[in-house]
Amino acid sequence: MEYTINKLAKMAGVSTRTLRFYDEIGLLTPARISSNGYRIYGPKETDRLQQILFYRELGVPLEEIKKILSSDDFDELAALESHLSAMLARRNQLDLLIANVEKTIRAAKGEMIMSDMEKFEGFKKKLVDENEQKYGREIREKYGDEAVDRSNAKFMGMSREQYAEFEKLTAEFHETLKAAYEQGDPAGELAQKACELHKKWLCFSWGEYSREAHIGVTQMYVEDPRFTAYFDRIAPGCAPFLRDAVQIYCR
Amino acid sequence: MEYTINKLAKMAGVSTRTLRFYDEIGLLTPARISSNGYRIYGPKETDRLQQILFYRELGVPLEEIKKILSSDDFDELAALESHLSAMLARRNQLDLLIANVEKTIRAAKGEMIMSDMEKFEGFKKKLVDENEQKYGREIREKYGDEAVDRSNAKFMGMSREQYAEFEKLTAEFHETLKAAYEQGDPAGELAQKACELHKKWLCFSWGEYSREAHIGVTQMYVEDPRFTAYFDRIAPGCAPFLRDAVQIYCR
DNA sequence: TGTTGACATTAACGTTACGTCATAGTTTAT
DNA sequence: ATAAACTATGACGTAACGTTAATGTCAACA
Fold first, then answer.
1. Cα separation of B20 and B25, whole Å?
2. How confident is the model at residue B75 (pLDDT cuts 50, 70, 90)?
3. What is the DSSP string of B153-191?
4. Domain that holds residue B110
5. Closest to A100 (Cα-Cα) out of A119, A128, A124, A114
6. Of B133, B155, B177, which residue constitutes the final position of a domain?
7. Domain containing B217 — which CATH number?
8. Which pLDDT tens digit goes with each residue over B33-60?
């Protein structure tokens, strides 16, 4: 089935200006130009527009979309599965924000106290994770870690070097925590070093560091299954260990 | 608690450039400027930034956000509840897109056939509903229907007049369908008029009209609970009636 | 105290993804 | 035949920042 520009635009929920722009930048070229000079779009273009809109929905810049769709090894099914994964993640992040609004409503009603940091729960993590999902593994493999890391760094307001430092610190913290946990002494030198690294790690995002908050966040790691699962991937069961170590560190 | 610009930016997941820009446009003014010329943000500004980010998350333009937050009758609790409502709707719309991706995956695997129109399910409706949720009732009441309708029309690629016509047609179709259903004759003059109006209504979004598609979409109204619920609000049980009438109309 | 790196300022240019308007040719419906 | 709808290209403008340059201030360390 073929469409003129207005028909396709209406069906897809975009403007004709958008479609002309996409033609102009080579993102979506019509199947042919009819004798009167009109753009005619076919089934191939219709499907391509759908893919474009999925990527656009996920916030992928148009130039990136163009690269992805135009590469020789573009795999439609893999892309669709990647969109599904990204959209499910988007929904999870939206859940975080919904929880934040709900919590803020309760705070506004005086039912609870909310820290300044909690007030922004979901915005920052959303940014980093959103970016990761937008690009996904497919993009990392295609364009390399550098492009993705640069983008992540941008979102976190860091330079590329700072971000690399952050990642290095993360890795060091994980290694040290694992080693300390295997050693088994929360008061030991290794565990206290892990606490120091954890403090540095936290300070990459926190506006203010406090001992109470440090203790509190490690308690949260134990109580919230999402965080426990995160730490279980470092070493199963190490979240309570970290909490114990931090309690000693902060005393 | 007070923050300098970098501290607040980091905590909130925005750039310092963003905060300076917001200061420049009067959206978020620091609590004070310290003796060295630095911006200092306090609790009031922290809360305001949270509200800004919620609105931004919902796609509200910054100038609109500024108007909303600065009006004398801004009600924080009501705004938060509006955000919650909007975000729940966003999640619902995301569900539509997720369903679309899943369906497209099945189509790509050859498990089903998908119409061109179905391929864009969720994009167009999302746009209109997203806009409605962004502004919500609060905004309609504050700035009037005109601003919202203008915005809706923009999203649907229609002029304001076309959009008004569309809404009028929608209302007429609903009234006629209700009346025809109460009359009870799918072949009757009133029912066939409803079918004609329904055809016009569909043609506002469809690139191509066909009798088969018309019959098919009314069948979908009967089979898909979301659509049945939509039509039940017009008159309970009228979706099968419309299907029967359209089958006669298209014969 | 001096030095260096981090933090902060303002100014200004650039980017992305279109929206809007003007002008003019083509198609469709009456 | 005529008017309305559809289509084209060209061009200016916009929102929301990102990036870079130049420079002052603060904090930590030797």
1. 9
2. confident
3. HHHTT--HHHHHHHHHHHHHHHHHHHHHHHHT-TTSHHH
4. 76-155
5. A119
6. B155
7. 1.10.490.50
8. 998 899 999 999 999 999 999 989 888 8
Nearest by Cα to B45 from B71, B61, B27, B57: B27
> B197-206: per-residue pLDDT in tens?
888 777 654 4
Do B131 and B190 share a domain, yes or no?
A: no
- Asked if A119's CB is within 8 angstroms of B207's CB, the reply is no
Cβ partners under 8 Å of residue B22, min gap 6: B28, B52, B62
Ordered DSSP codes for B68-102: HHHSTT--HHHHHHHHHHHHHHHHHHHHHHHHHHH
Task: State the ipTM, two decimals.
Answer: 0.63
Higher pLDDT among residues A58 and A140, named by residue = A58
Distances (CA, A) of A43 to A58, B1, B107: 23, 58, 14
Query: Quick one: closest CA in B to A48, which residue?
Result: B119
Could you say which of A13, A102, A207 has the minimum Cβ distance to residue B11? A207
CA atoms within 13 A on the CB side of B5: 19
Whether B15 and A157 lie within 8 Å, measured CB to CB: yes
Lookup: tokens for B87: 């975000």
Number of cross-chain residue pairs from A and B with Cβ atoms under 8 Å apart: 143
Here the tokens at position A194 are 């892990």
CA distances to B178, B228, B230 from B233, in Å: 10, 9, 6
Window from A176-180, B187-191, B218-222, B227-231 with minimum mean pLDDT = B227-231
- Provide, in whole angstroms, the distance separating residue B171's CA from nucleotide C26's C1': 35
Do B24 and B100 belong to one domain?
no
